[in-house]
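Morning run. Coffee first, then this:
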Amino acid sequence: MSGRTLAGFFRLDEWPGRVILALFTLSNTVNTLATLNDVRSPAAAVGTLALATAGAVLLLLPIRSALYPRAAASAVVLIVVGLSLASWNLPATGWPGWASWNWFASTLLLIVLVLRGRVLAAWAGFALHVLVVFGWVAQVGRPLTQGVEFVAHHAVLLLVFTLFSSVLRSTMRSIAQVEQAHLELVSSRAWADAAAGAREERVARVRSAGGDLLDILASDTPLTDQHRRECLLAEAAIRDVLRGGVLASDSVLAAARAARTRHVEVQLLDDGGTSRPEHGDLGRMHEAARAALERADGGTVTIRRLPPGRPQLATIRVVAAGSAERLDVPARSLERDVAAT
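And here it is:
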């Protein structure tokens, strides 16, 4: 359903609202010109037309505008003033007929106010409408029953639209709740699918790290020294996959395995949580880790991905022969954000 409000549903802020305004003004203009000989003052009739048009323009201002509450209040004032002028201008005797077009036009404007969500303001305006009509009836000496006839069908029309708008608003809220629940369900399913995919990928990599050793261990084949070394390398690779997170790319795992064959102690630690670096940052981090592992010849290499928001993506610490070296991998995406601000 388009629009989260009735104004949005009926597109009163868009071109349909402009069409309604044009038809409203055209209809009122025709009625005004056709009844100029039936009223007390043609000038007052034209003034009534101007007030009704101005009220319509104010009510069709964008509802999200900060000026709309004041515009709506001004529109109610214009409606009441127009009603007063139109009622004074009607003939004192006989049925007013089309000369009373302003009464219906004012009711239409109050209906627009209801659709805009200003129900109390609309009924306050209609209460003043009733007072104006009954005041005119009393002034010209008409029976009060005629006053009831003049306002009854307008009251019913406004009541119907008030009930209609209330039901439609409730329906729209229910639809919005269903849509929100659906979005949350889709989001949770997407998250679950992504988590399942990540688990499957990790299991596949663990199996790949174990290679044929799992079959050898499950069989009765005697283990050789080479098998034991391969088991240690496989165990270290599995630890890299589980603890290394996004650091454990194929190239980094291969470099770590080769470094361990040179008696290098390797640790891959991913402290970046569930976030994933940009593709360029991830590639630079993998390249720096691979290069450090390939250069190492003994000692310890610790590669740690840092939490998000740090100036560095990762740190690489190499300790060998009594010396220590630290290499920082800067986050270029962070540098671009800072520069942009």
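The two ends are 38 Å apart (CA to CA). Good start to the day.
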